[in-house]
Design goal:
The complex is a heterodimer of chains A (about 280) and B (about 300). Helix content of chain A is about 75%, strand content about 0%. Chain A is mainly α and about 280 residues long. Chain A has two domains: about 35 residues; about 240 residues, MetI-like (MetI-like fold, Orthogonal Bundle). In chain A, helix 7 runs antiparallel to helix 8. Chain B has about 300 residues and is mainly α. Chain B folds into two domains: about 40 residues; about 240 residues, MetI-like fold (Orthogonal Bundle). Chain B is about 75% helix and about 0% strand. Chain B contains 13 helices and two strands; from the N terminus they run H-H-H-E-E-H-H-H-H-H-H-H-H-H-H. In chain B, strands 1-2 form a two-stranded antiparallel ribbon. In chain B, helix 4 packs parallel to helix 7, helix 7 packs antiparallel against helix 10 and helix 8 runs antiparallel to helix 9. The longest helix of chain B has about 35 residues. The two termini of chain B are about 45 Å apart. Classes of the chains: A mainly alpha (about 280), B mainly alpha (about 300). At the A-B interface, helix 1, helix 3, helix 4, helix 5 and helix 6 of A face helix 1, helix 2, helix 4, helix 5 and helix 6 of B.
Chain lengths: ~280, ~300
């Protein structure tokens, strides 16, 4: 009897910690959704800010974040995929290769604010790109690089050896095997990884603080060499730096909600691709 | 295609991929060289020992003071607080997922944890301001709740997904024969978990904790928004603190380029870089240990 009770207590303690973790997620989503939905409307996502940010919408911040995300993907994805192909398909198992792998894994652990400093010193100043959309996009590209490499390598790893051997038996060169057999069958996994990496980059604030994000821009041109507005930075400014923080709180809530929706939509897309490809493999 | 041109393509692409691989590998080196280069300009003016041992940080005063000890202690305080919350919750959840949860429940909880990991740090920092801060203010009777405890709570939420995922992998990797042997000599489920499975998975759990600590120390936006940003030696969890990451984020936006203050921020960054690198390397080492264990 006593032992049974103890067992329930023990099991309950584990259940409690799991519930607490889920509770955090529910609080975050519920608080943002319930308080952010109030001032969320079509006007809010389709108009420019007005009256010193106290009314109007966040359209330039949304466009800025989308463009930033696209630049990040364009710069980081090809580089990352090629690096993963080298590491998994070409590289011999030597100390140098292991060093490259270790360096990439450790790059993933570098704090994002240090990427911001690197972007400032390297892109903004040394390469004279200035504080601009391009500098920020390149900085976020570097930040996403290790994630793209690691997930691409995992996707390449899941391609069975037998179909590689089949390609070789038909006389394909190494590159033809990689291009026509390995990469196409690893593609869903690679794309999932890229979307996840990019969704993480879309929510990052610290790396764009000093590389090009701006609080407000009159008549934004959205060209690569100009400063830009971005959703996470906009949320940061609205919630801490605005002169009447309480007045713009509803707008901050809605901005946070839009940001979360963008990030979660990207995540859902990635999960859908992963789910679909795993189903296709199961039936094939 | 002719054989000769195919051979040429083969040679060229092999070189191209190699260049990409080495390029990506050298990003970390470039990053550290950049930090060393800029920090060196600072350490010409200020002694490294004074930099890490003094608590006075006043770059704009005259004479200016560059002592970052209070920031370092603030960073540690917030990270330790975060771990006090995140380690028990994280390992408990990992154990629940690995040992008790059924397939169906697992399939529901896994995406929930991935979703928690996907929430941008700035949104979590925002909730620290609007939800946790009023709560803590009511609890302590102060005017606001922007302090080290607030930051620690938020950072624990951010570190939890990492800790849970890695710890669960470690627990899942323990051979079933271990558990069977334990059940065989009459141990209960709980006894098996605490005295067999978790000790056997210890390297992986340590790795999980280390990666969580690395995440907590390097996080910028949440602590910048929620900890109050007062540069002083903290006396407890209810003091406002300013961490190393927050200092870089706040001051880099205002400082003129190529001044001592500018280089000082790179020096803070290099210390932060070294701390996170060492912590992540320890984590990697233990991940390597439990991966080897899995194969055996």
């Amino acid at each position: 009897m006593k032992r049974k009770l103890l067992e329930y207590l023990e099991w309950g303690s584990l259940l409690m910690s799991t519930t607490a973790v889920c509770f955090f997620l529910v609080v975050i989503l519920w608080d943002l959704a319930s308080k952010g939905a109030g001032s969320l409307s079509w006007d809010f996502v389709s108009r420019f800010p007005e009256n010193g940010m106290t009314s109007g919408g966040i359209l330039p911040a949304i466009i800025g974040t989308v463009m930033l995300t696209v630049i990040t993907a364009i710069t980081a994805a090809p580089f990352g995929i090629c690096c993963a192909i080298y590491l998994h398909e070409y590289a011999p198992d030597t100390p140098v290769t292991r060093l490259i792998r270790a360096s990439i894994r450790n790059l993933a652990g570098v704090p994002s604010v240090i990427f911001g400093l690197f972007g400032l010193a390297c892109f903004v100043q040394a390469l004279h790109l200035g504080t601009s959309l391009l500098s920020a996009g390149l900085t976020l590209g570097l930040l996403s690089l290790p994630y793209i490499i690691v997930t691409s390598e995992e996707a390449l790893h899941r391609v069975p050896v037998s179909i590689r051997e089949g390609a070789w038996a038909l006389g394909a060169t190494h590159f033809e095997m990689v291009r026509d057999i390995v990469v196409p069958s690893a593609l869903p996994g690679i794309i999932t990884g890229i979307i996840l990496a990019v969704s993480r980059a879309a929510g990052e604030t610290a790396p764009i603080l000093f590389t090009g994000a701006a609080y407000y821009i009159n008549n934004p041109s959205f060209s690569l060499d100009q400063e830009f507005m971005a959703l996470p930075y906009h949320l940061y400014m609205l919630s801490t730096q605005h002169q009447s923080v309480d007045l713009v709180r509803p707008l901050a809530y809605s901005t946070a909600l839009v940001l979360i929706i963008v990030v979660l939509l990207l995540n859902l897309t990635a999960f859908y691709i992963r789910y679909k490809s795993s189903k296709d493999h199961a039936t094939a | 295609m002719k054989l000769v041109s195919r051979k040429h393509t083969e040679k060229f692409t092999a070189r191209f991929f190699k260049a990409c691989g080495f390029g990506a590998g050298s990003v970390l080196i470039a990053l550290s060289l950049m930090l060393v280069w800029n920090a060196a300009a600072f350490f010409i003016h200020v002694k490294p020992y004074d930099f890490v041992s003094k608590t006075q940080w006043d770059p704009t005063g005259s004479p200016s003071a560059y002592g970052m000890l209070s920031m370092l202690i603030s960073t540690m305080l917030v990270a330790v607080g975060a771990m006090l919350i995140a380690i028990p919750l994280g390992i408990g959840t990992a154990a629940f997922l690995a040992e008790y949860a059924g397939r169906k429940l697992k399939n529901m909880l896994k995406p929930a944890i991935e979703m928690l990991a996907a929430i941008p740090s700035v949104a979590i920092g925002f909730l620290g301001i609007v939800v946790i801060s009023p709560g803590l203010a009511g609890l302590t009777g102060r005017s606001n709740g922007l302090n080290a405890l607030n930051g620690a709570i938020l950072l624990s939420v951010m570190a939890l997904p990492t800790i849970i995922t890695v710890a669960q992998d470690a627990i899942d990797g323990i051979p079933i024969s271990y558990k069977e042997a334990s059940f065989g000599i009459g141990a209960s489920r709980w006894q098996t978990l605490t005295q067999v499975t978790i000790p056997a998975a210890a390297p992986g759990i340590l790795a999980a904790i280390m990666l969580g600590v690395g995440r907590a120390i390097g996080e910028t936006m949440t602590v910048l928004m929620a900890t109050g940003n007062a540069i002083a030696l903290p006396h407890g969890f209810f003091d406002a603190v300013r961490t190393m990451t927050a200092t870089i984020a706040i001051e880099m936006g205002e400082v003129p380029f190529q001044t001592t203050h500018y280089y000082a921020l790179f020096s803070v960054a290099i210390l932060l870089f070294i701390i996170t690198l060492v912590i992540n390397m320890i984590g990697e080492y233990f991940v390597g240990r439990f991966k080897k264990f899995e194969i055996r």
